[in-house]
């Protein structure tokens, strides 16, 4: 038996699978985030530990016979978060999360520094880890002086489980400290933000064993004493493992809190000025590229909150898919990553008419998210990524209407998987299977069965192309009116 332990922004999930990857059960515990100032987003790492402890104990209590055969725990988690430890391993301050934009000025300075893009393969986004540490150095110098180790969120869970400071290449590629081609820390990139190699965790591939589970913790959690902890990967790399996106041409679209369009790559082919992320995969000798929008289902949740409706209630009255109207929604509620790298821009409706109602606003929000993902697709194609179809995952993918919109907006077939487990927790469990048993990733990380494929509608192709052109043309006007940061 194996567990995939996924540390998300909104909760921790523990997924129990057998050696063939079949799901036995799961447990989850929620998390909240603190936003003490505009643009800030923080969590207390102690809350991660408490949530992980609760989820693992629940599995142990609910499935005792299966847990007795547990051999490994694989990890996945939210990327980019800065968890700062002193020389005793104590946390120095709340962790600064991926969606925190306070370090936008520091990010711009790092991004302009010589060789930073060339070595990392990426723009330095405000959400990345390196600019966060530069912000700490400049605004909290006493804290910065006390830093012994910087760990990413899932790696802090690994530290708790094993007592060892370890990370994998897929997660570390999102720090702006990794030489992504060489799959190793770069002393030059570290020095650019005042950091040293000894402050970094040891690096291994995502199938690497971080260490055995601490004996005292195994007893506390009700787990066997010989469990191995596999370091796993960042959430999107782990999700790619969960859906079998390993090879050139494989990809998925995720409609979660944020939106992701991911393409697996056989080689390293960065193009930083596209604002596409180029990261190491969680399996050896593979990379992946992705475009990221910051507000996917978050956009629909925002509309639900201000209308007093649930997302399901908002989408229930939309009826059949039709050509986009004049009403447009720009989903930049928290700024945007791909393709704009703009933390200051904010969202908008354009073309509002007194005759528009709730259904029109809902339709425009869903279309706006899809058009933003079309921007991502065009950015990915500029790097040479050759997506010919995508698998739809994430909470928003449960809406057939939204997936039909995606097929038309992307002008690509969208595969809907059969009901079952997908995503980062399953990918983490699969990484654990490979790490503990030595099985080849290609044999374990297979693609899920497809229940249905939604094709782009030829009769709507021109209408969607025209509507996307109007969507793209609206960004320069919004950029001229930056929001507060």
UniProtKB/TrEMBL annotation:
Binding site for substrate: 79-80
CDD domains named in the record: ASKHA_NBD_FGGY_EcXK-like
GO-annotated molecular function: ATP binding; D-xylulokinase activity
Pfam families (UniProt xref): FGGY_C (PF02782), FGGY_N (PF00370)
Function: Catalyzes the phosphorylation of D-xylulose to D-xylulose 5-phosphate.
Highest taxon in the source lineage: Bacteria
Reaction equations catalysed: D-xylulose + ATP = D-xylulose 5-phosphate + ADP + H(+)
Record InterPro entries: ATPase_NBD, Carb_kinase_FGGY, Carb_kinase_FGGY_CS, FGGY_C, FGGY_Carb_Kinase, FGGY_N, Xylulokinase
Similarity comment: family membership: Belongs to the FGGY kinase family.
Descriptive protein name: Xylulose kinase
Assigned keywords, A-Z: ATP-binding, Carbohydrate metabolism, Kinase, Nucleotide-binding, Transferase, Xylose metabolism
Residue ranges of every copy of the Carbohydrate kinase FGGY N-terminal domain listed in the record: 1-242
Biological process according to GO: D-xylose metabolic process; xylulose catabolic process
């Amino acid at each position: 038996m194996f567990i995939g332990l996924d540390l998300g922004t909104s909760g921790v999930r523990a997924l129990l699978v057998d050696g063939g990857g079949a799901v036995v059960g799961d447990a989850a515990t929620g998390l909240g985030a603190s936003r003490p100032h505009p643009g800030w987003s923080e969590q207390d790492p102690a809350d991660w530990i408490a949530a992980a402890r609760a989820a693992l104990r629940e599995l142990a209590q609910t499935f005792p016979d299966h847990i007795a055969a547990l051999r490994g725990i694989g990890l996945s988690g939210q990327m980019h978060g800065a968890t700062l430890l002193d020389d005793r391993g104590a946390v120095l301050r709340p962790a600064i999360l991926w969606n925190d934009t306070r370090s936008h000025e520091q990010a711009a300075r790092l991004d302009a520094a010589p060789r930073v893009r060339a070595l990392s393969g990426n723009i330095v986004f405000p959400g990345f880890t390196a600019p966060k540490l530069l912000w700490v150095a400049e605004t909290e110098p006493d804290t910065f002086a006390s830093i012994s180790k910087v760990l990413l969120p899932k790696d802090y869970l690994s530290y708790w489980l094993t007592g060892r400071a370890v990370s994998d290449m897929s997660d570390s590629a999102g720090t702006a400290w990794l030489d992504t081609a060489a799959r190793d820390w770069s002393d030059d990139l570290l020095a650019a933000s005042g950091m040293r190699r000894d402050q970094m965790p040891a690096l291994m591939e995502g199938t690497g064993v971080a260490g055995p589970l601490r004996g005292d913790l195994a007893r506390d959690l009700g787990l066997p004493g010989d469990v191995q902890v596999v370091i796993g990967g960042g959430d999107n790399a782990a999700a790619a493992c969960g859906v079998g996106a390993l090879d050139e041409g494989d990809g998925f679209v995720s409609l979660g809190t944020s939106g992701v369009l991911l393409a697996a790559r056989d080689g390293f082919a960065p193009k930083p000025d596209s604002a596409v992320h180029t990261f190491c995969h969680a399996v050896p000798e593979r990379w992946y590229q992705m475009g990221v929008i910051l507000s996917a289902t978050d956009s629909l949740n925002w509309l639900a909150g201000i209308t007093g409706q649930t997302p399901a209630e908002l989408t229930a009255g939309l009826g059949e898919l039709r050509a986009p109207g004049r009403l447009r929604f720009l989903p930049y509620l928290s700024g945007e990553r791909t393709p704009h790298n703009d933390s200051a821009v904010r969202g908008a409706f354009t073309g509002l008419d007194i005759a528009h109602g709730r259904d029109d606003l809902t339709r425009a929000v869903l279309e706006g998210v899809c058009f933003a993902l079309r921007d991502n697709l065009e950015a990915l194609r500029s790097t040479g990524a050759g997506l010919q179809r995508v698998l739809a995952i994430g909470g928003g993918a449960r809406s057939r209407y939204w997936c039909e919109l995606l097929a038309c907006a992307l002008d690509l077939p969208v595969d809907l998987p059969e009901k079952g487990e997908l995503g980062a927790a399953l990918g983490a469990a699969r990484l654990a299977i490979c790490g503990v048993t030595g099985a080849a990733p290609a044999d374990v990380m297979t693609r899920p069965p497809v229940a249905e494929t939604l094709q782009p509608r030829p009769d709507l192709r021109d209408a969607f192309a025209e509507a996307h052109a109007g969507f793209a043309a609206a960004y320069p006007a919004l950029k001229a009116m930056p929001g507060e940061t």
